[in-house]
Design goal:
The structure holds two protein chains of two kinds. Chain A is α/β, with parallel strands linked by helices. Chain A is 36% helix and 23% strand. The chains are: A alpha/beta, B alpha/beta.
Chain lengths: 177, 389
């Protein structure tokens, strides 16, 4: 089982993106689980999500404390202590940022860092700062945990072709360090 | 088999209710339940569901409207949470004591104060003396399946008691996972069309619920309590019928996991059960013989099954997501102890309280419960364990 924690802000589409990942896993014969964690529901406030992918039914219904993968939709969240907390030794950080990894306070135990300017791609493709679908493209490329083609199809079905294009572009553009 | 989909717990409640073809739905939105009735309103609006959808101004009205429709012989549905359930209490109690069958989903939520909108089972547990059947679900599949089973159980002539299908707010209501969605044909074949033995009808005018003297009221209560007991074997029957039709069995009023040879038991309610199963597997790897007793139904309380399931353990802990004020314990702890009767002697036991107000019951919390259990040297009640930090 792979445990993934997502960090974003209200309005960035973290919850809907995670639903698409679980849907993709389930539709390709795997198991997935996502639990959103809402604070006060308002645009801009920090939002978490707990995502699990596995080859067998996922029974635990808990938050994720020691993620294998962190998906960070907003690089202004890196200074909150909760953001990098508990990342496993050798774990993966995928972050939406225009900055270089050295500027992102990446924790020591990180195995792989992947950076993509998902906001720029989203603004270019869909005209709004909703980086969720671009981040899914980066996630598919970096982790290989979901079938990328099926994921793109589900993104298109849910949000339209411009979002499929955002995901595709981020898939190609993500820099794995 | 129907379609395999990724669905939230709330969507499962929506689809479960829709597949049972309710004649009427009345609802008022409240977090974390809202998307259940929003989903039903969408289905009615789009014409996919042929039900009367009544949007009311409060939960008190929601229960009153479905009550009238049920008294006229309709199959009805609503859903609520926390303060909504509290506001509904007056017609809620009357629904069960009128012996009108229905299913109401409760996406369980902590009760205010302190102000909160997050998870906890205090709402459903606080109304456990209001005469409804109450079951608690672990998975989203179980939510969907229990709404379908709930109508068969509630409408059984030996029962005629409304059913609450309860599931954890957010940790189930907003959790997405793999679910097999039955087809309408499968559900139609399983669940017969509903007909109430006595119903209000303008063609044959009659009074419903006139002022009733105590001597007669006592007979009603006696019958209601007897019907609750009669429901216990019906719960098992419905589970068996459901398994035959859909290939999924949940074990009836309780479920157990690796309990047969266990020295210790975790007694759980709702979604935390899945976490307990994972902890049991991990602890058994290290040689601790622990198992799970999942309370699926809390009303009627499965006294005999609980007693039999825990007969051979040295100790047990009841993990509650709600509290029983005045007992310094979780809601189900005192009830499990009462069910044990004289067989409680010689066992070590305690109440564990966690997951209030949206707090997590983590793997570490559940492991701590087991470690505390195995460290007890004396039989009898040990201190209440709060699953904090």
């Amino acid at each position: 089982m792979q445990e993934i924690r997502l960090h974003g802000r209200g309005g960035q589409g973290l919850v809907k993106a995670s639903h698409i990942v679980v849907r993709t896993a389930v539709e390709t014969g795997h198991y997935g689980q996502f639990i959103p964690f809402f604070g006060v529901e308002r645009k801009g406030s920090p939002v978490f999500g707990f995502l699990r992918l596995a080859e067998e039914p996922i029974r635990r219904k808990t938050q994720v404390y020691t993620p294998d993968v962190l998906i960070i939709l907003d690089d202004t969240l890196i200074h909150l202590s909760a953001t990098y907390a508990g990342l496993r030794e050798g774990g993966t950080v995928i972050i939406n940022s225009a900055h270089a990894p050295e500027e992102l306070a990446i924790p020591e135990q990180t195995g792989r860092v992947a950076v993509v300017d998902a906001t720029a791609i989203a603004l270019d493709e869909i005209g709004r700062n909703i980086p969720n679908t671009a981040m899914l493209g980066a996630f598919a490329r970096v982790t290989g945990l979901v079938d990328a083609q099926k994921l793109f199809d589900n993104i298109a079905a849910e949000f339209g072709e411009t979002n499929r294009e955002a995901a595709r572009r981020a898939y190609d553009a993500v820099r794995i360090c | 088999m129907g379609e395999v989909k990724a669905l939230t717990g709330n969507k499962c409640a929506t689809m479960g209710a829709a597949l049972c073809r309710p004649d009427l739905i009345a609802a008022y939105p409240i977090t974390p339940q809202s998307s259940v009735v929003e989903g039903l309103a969408d289905l009615v609006f789009s014409g996919e569901l042929n039900s009367r959808m009544v949007q009311v101004e409060s939960e008190h009205s929601a229960m009153s409207v479905v009550q009238g429709a049920a008294a006229a012989g309709g199959r009805v549905f609503t859903a609520t949470s926390a303060q909504g359930l509290a506001l509904m209490y007056e017609p809620y109690f009357r629904m069960s004591t009128l012996r009108l069958p229905m299913v109401m989903a409760i996406a369980t939520r902590e009760m205010t104060s302190p102000e909160t909108i997050w998870s906890g089972q205090q709402d459903a547990m606080s109304v456990r003396e209001a005469g409804w059947i109450q079951c608690f679900c672990e998975t989203n599949q179980e939510i969907l399946d229990m709404i379908i089973q709930g109508y068969m159980l509630a409408e059984d002539k030996r029962v005629l008691i409304p059913v609450n299908v309860c599931y954890d707010g957010f940790y189930s209501s907003h959790l997405v996972e793999r679910v097999e969605l039955p087809t309408q044909e499968e559900v139609d074949a399983f669940l017969p069309a509903y007909s109430l033995p006595a119903k209000l009808d303008p063609a044959t005018p009659q009074a419903l619920d006139p002022m009733t003297p105590g001597e007669l009221l006592m007979k009603y209560r006696h019958n209601h309590l007897e019907a609750m007991q009669a429901a216990l074997p019906v719960i098992d029957e419905v589970d068996a019928k459901f398994a035959a039709a859909f290939g999924r069995s949940y074990g009836g009023a309780i479920d157990t996991y690796r309990l047969d040879d266990a020295d210790y038991a975790l007694v759980t309610v709702g979604g935390m059960t899945g976490t307990a199963r994972d902890v049991v597997d991990a602890m058994r790897e290290s040689g601790v013989k622990v198992g799970v007793l999942k309370l699926r139904f809390t009303r009627p309380f499965p006294v005999e099954k609980v007693r039999a399931a825990l007969a051979n353990v040295k100790g047990f802990a009841v993990v509650d997501r709600s509290v029983s004020f005045g007992w310094n314990a979780g809601s189900m702890y005192s009830e499990v102890c009462a069910a044990m009767g004289e067989t409680l002697a010689g066992k070590a036991h305690f109440s564990a309280i966690g997951g209030l107000g949206g707090a997590d019951i983590s793997m570490a919390h559940m492991e701590n419960v087991v470690k505390t259990l195995t460290s007890l040297n004396e039989p009898g009640r040990a201190d209440t364990l709060w699953l904090m930090d």
